[in-house]
Amino acid sequence: MQENNMVSVVIPTLNEAGTIRETIKTIKETIEYPYEIIVVDGCSTDNTREIVRKEKCKLIVEPRRGYGTALKAGIAHARGNIILIVDGDGTYKVRDANRLINALYRENADLCLGARIYNLADKSMDVINYIGNKIITFAFNVLYKQNLLDSQSGFRVLKRSSLDKVHLKENDMAFATEMLVAFAKKGLKIIEIPTNYKLRVYGKSKLRRVKAGLEIFKVLIKGALER
Ligand SMILES: Nc1nc2c(ncn2[C@@H]2O[C@H](COP(=O)(O)OP(=O)(O)OP(=O)(O)O)[C@@H](O)[C@H]2O)c(=O)[nH]1
Ligand SMILES: [Mg+2]
User: Fold this and answer.
1) pLDDT category, 2, cuts 50, 70, 90?
2) Which residues pair with 59 in a beta bridge?
3) Most buried residue, 9, 50, 103, 115, by CB count within 10 Å?
């Protein structure tokens, strides 16, 4: 059952023991809406799950690999009319969640992305990721008549009712792009607001760049051909 005026915070984790407690704590301390927190853990081998259990959040273990698989599992358990997605790796400014939600309501948008502001010099965004993101975002904007700055942001809020209008199949990082493509094709409103982005301080990136890049371009092209 969906509850109005409730935000379901969905956090995918794979070995994020160094940052997940702080992520959860920040949400609990700063979010200005009724909420639930759902952590979807992909069989972490550090103590991510023990930390989540102590924080008394809803914990889903999704043994199948993939960022998209994890988010789909989390969303299936979400009860809120608003879904907030954020990484558990401490790189996003989680306290900006309110700003994203407020903008979504204010602009009557279907999806609001946190467009990342970062310092390339301190490597908070790897240069190759930066270039890849720019190329993908440019291609997305041209193909789907949008004007985004950061299509690959993992910090986003969306209306559940809008998400229910699309069918997302991607199981890994391309899930984030597939969501944008599906929303744009349905004429749903996508907006962005700026948010700071930080260097990953714990653990390893799970982004496999070549695999993700190829899958993302497949999603972009397939979506444009299937109009
Ligand atoms: N449950 C689950 N979570 C995952 C999986 N892959 C990645 N994640 C989580 O999804 C989020 C995004 O993955 P990241 O490795 O941070 O990818 P990224 O943000 O592109 O890479 P960084 O720039 O290094 O942060 C993180 O919180 C991961 O722990 C997976 O297979 N299963
Ligand atoms: Mg990350």
Assistant:
1) confident
2) 39
3) 9
205 Cβ below 6 A of ligand 1? yes
Q: How confident is the model at residue 213 (pLDDT cuts 50, 70, 90)?
A: very high
Report the C-alpha gap between 206 and 1 in whole angstroms: 33
Sort residue 28 into left (φ over 0), alpha (ψ -120 to 50) or beta.
alpha
Q: Specify the DSSP class assigned to residue 67.
A: H
CA distance 158 to 22: 23
Q: Which amino acid is at 62?
A: E
* pTM for the whole structure: 0.97
Model confidence band, residue 4 (pLDDT cutoffs 50, 70, 90):
confident
Ligand 1 pocket test: which of 206, 209, 215 has the largest number of ligand atoms within 8 Å of its C-beta? 206
Residue 204 Cα: closest atom of ligand 1: 24
Q: How far apart are the CA of 161 and the centre of ligand 2, in A?
A: 27
For the Cβ of 193 lying below 6 angstroms from any atom of ligand 1, the answer is no
Q: Where are the alpha helices (DSSP H) in the chain?
A: 20-30, 48-54, 67-77, 97-106, 127-144, 160-163, 174-185, 209-225
3-225 belongs to which CATH class?
alpha beta
Q: Is the CB of 40 under 6 A from ligand 1?
A: yes
Distances (CA, A) of 102 to 107, 140, 149, 163, 186: 8, 25, 20, 18, 23
